[in-house]
Amino acid sequence: MQLLGIHHVALIGADLERSKHFYVEVLGFRVVAEHHRPARDSWKVDLQGPGGMQLELFTFPGAPPRPSRPEAQGLRHLAFATPNVEACRVRLEAHRVACEEVRVDEYTGRRFFFCADPDGLPIEFYEVVK
Fold first, then answer.
1. What is the pLDDT of residue 130?
2. Which of 12, 63, 104, 123 is 20 to 30 A from 84, comparing alpha carbons?
3. pLDDT of residue 105
């Protein structure tokens, strides 16, 4: 088997407009396609970010909230690489997104911090040096 990388990450939001605002206006993704699926009373929005990153944003009526704390099994968080965690943190806070303090990864020495999307999904911003 030959894997080339992660193709996309799928997210389910409770409020489509609130989630689109966060991922498009705050994080800078762009809407590539938006489809209403009447049979499921659901929306699917394809988002594209820097470097070809792809997110699929869905809504489903009655979707249960994500268990977060204590840690639940399964996907833990979404992490974005950035050359400057401070700049990310400043932008998020300007949009009234609560951010944790910047920490240092004890194994790599790299800086990172977490915030949450509008539905409580933990999002990490991890500083990489090019």
1. 67
2. 12
3. 94
